[in-house]
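re the bet — no i am not wrong, look at it urself. input seq straight from the record:
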Amino acid sequence: MKLIKRADWGAPATSGAGSIANTRGVKIHYMGSHYTSHAHSRCAGQVLAVRRSHMANTKENYADIAYNYVVCEHGYVFEGRGVNKRTGANGNAALNTAHYSVLALLGSSGMTEPTADMLNGIVDAVEHLRAHGNAGNEVLGHRDGHPTQCPGGPLYAWVSAGAQRPGVDQGDDKPSTPAPSTPADPYARGLPQVGKRSPSTVALQRELQRVGYMASSVKRDANYGPRTQDAVAAFHDANPQFKSAPGRRPQIGPLGWAFLRKMRKGAGSPAPSTPSTPTVNLSRLIAAARRDPGLPQGGTTHAADVRVVERALAAEGLLNSRWASDGSFGSMSVAAYAAWQRRCGYTGRDADGIPGAASLRKLGVKHGFRVG
């Protein structure tokens, strides 16, 4: 852990914030404004600027910088309030008591994609809070339980995918150490790189085939060549929350890599292709979402497709189980699906509750149905 203590970045040595014995876990935040990538020599100044803005905020009346820790793009962890100090960042007193907070120096525009070093730094901060601040196992986004877009689509996608270190197989939250006679896990080799040969490219190809972005007839090899690049670009087009920028993106990033690794371990893996795997017809689902809210209570248009999606939304905690099997894509289901779209990083008219191909496919990958 590359820890920078308070006094080393210009704050008083100790925080005057109130004490707290333990929390359920940690919530991840971002700046929520434009942010530009900097040399590391300027990061301490950025953290100090955040503290000064908080201390000048008479409405919130902060006792200190609101966050327990701040992580820069270079993976350094700046001590904010620190361990066993109640955060001021999560939205209200109850939320501040339930979780610590970690800020990523990341923007809503400009630099919006976390670096691998930053993700490792966030994990370092979370593990430090667990070891020294009695934090529980939950790692959530600021938006979980509070009406905000924080921590932004790209970072929230990583949080939703398990908040794991990029390129390192954590297993059950523990390092994976193979026996000396066992070949090294290709996932532990780091990100595969366009135009280079790596065992991790074979792992990438395997997962792309499993989720349908690379034909199963393609022979896997260590070369990150044109076919792999095309498959990754298609994966990004369907899952834009993993893109580092608009346009064709053939290079897999740390967020997409973490998501694919999570699928390999069984959490979110697509169901095997068997007759029992449900298929949701996107056109029928859209028709139901547009028509069912205007029907009498419980009225249905395409109940079989809707039930599959309702069960998935209920499993995500977005739809009350009371409505999770009626087959009607009514107003409650529309609101739940809109919440799922926001969780995927969509905003405005892209989060109106009418299913789209990318968000539905992501829901299907997590909950074992296919999109037809």
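see?? Residues 256 and 324 are 29 Å apart (CA to CA). told u. also The first strand starts at residue 2 and ends at 4. so pay up
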